[in-house]
Amino acid sequence: MAGKSLSDAEFPDGDLWVFGYGSLIWKPGFAFLEQSPARLIGEHRSLCIYSMVHRGTYEKPGLVLGLDRGGACQGTAFRVARKDREATVAYLREREQVTGVYREVMRSVWLKGDARERIRALAYVADRSHDQYAGRLTLEEQLKLVRQGHGAYGDNAEYVISTVAALEARGIRDVPLHRLAALLKGGETPQRSR
């Protein structure tokens, strides 16, 4: 099932920038010329996608990241050479659009080091109309789904923990994701609020 994809005319003429906010940070899977810390404004990193293939199954869904409306997201921008653009986009579509849960978009991204250096980058944003869109889940709900999730790409808990490790290595703290990773590592259950 294909998600919303960009037409060839919507891509830049030269090199292509790709914005990574989850597993693309620690496992891009494509060749790139450079990477830079980057900030996208208007969407935030969220465990808002039920995973039925990569980190879960239809019987036992997992939970993966998407860019969801509002806020901002610290991530990594990868610059891909013009000659590799077509192959990179094909690879990303195969990886990200297995069930069509993301919208492929070009977004303004600010590279770290110079707030005035704005680029346009390819990003994958959660499609809120898709039935795999989980929306805002409680920590307890996230923990249950991540603990049960295992799919074609492996264990869902490993995905969350690896993403948090990659964020930490880049000096990024994502409080909700860090809290979930700590619970996964410790095997604890979250404290219920009274």
Task: Using brief descriptors, characterize the structure shown.
194 residues; Hypothetical upf0131 protein ytfp; single chain; two-stranded antiparallel ribbon; 5-stranded mixed β-barrel; alpha+beta
Structure description:
By secondary structure, the chain is an alpha+beta fold. The chain has one domain (about 10-185): Gamma-glutamyl cyclotransferase-like (Hypothetical upf0131 protein ytfp). The protein has helices at about 25, 85-95, 140-150, 155-170, 175-185, and strands at about 15-20, 35-50, 60-80, 100-110, 120-125, 150, 155. The strands form two sheets. Strands 1-3-2-4-5 form a five-stranded mixed barrel. The protein has a two-stranded antiparallel sheet with strand order 6-7. It is globular. The model has no long low-confidence stretch (mean pLDDT about 90).
Q: How would you sum up this structure in a few lines?
A:
Helices cover 27% and strands 34% of the residues.
Q: What's the architecture in CATH terms?
A: Roll
Distance between the termini: 43 Å
CATH topology, by name, is: Hypothetical upf0131 protein ytfp
Q: What is the H/E order?
A: EHEEHEEHEEHH
Shape: globular
The radius of gyration computed from the alpha-carbon positions, rounded to a whole number of angstroms, is 16 Å
In the CATH hierarchy, what is the class? Alpha Beta
Beta-strand level of the residues, as a percent range?
A: 25-35%
Strand order of the largest sheet: 1-3-2-4-5
Class derived from helix and strand content? alpha+beta
What's the story with the biggest beta sheet? Answer: 5 strands, mixed, barrel
CATH superfamily (homologous) name: Gamma-glutamyl cyclotransferase-like
Poorly predicted segments: none
- Roughly what is the average pLDDT, rounded to an integer? 92
How many strands? 7
Helicity range of the residues?
25-40%
* Total number of domains: 1
Count of DSSP H/I helices: 5
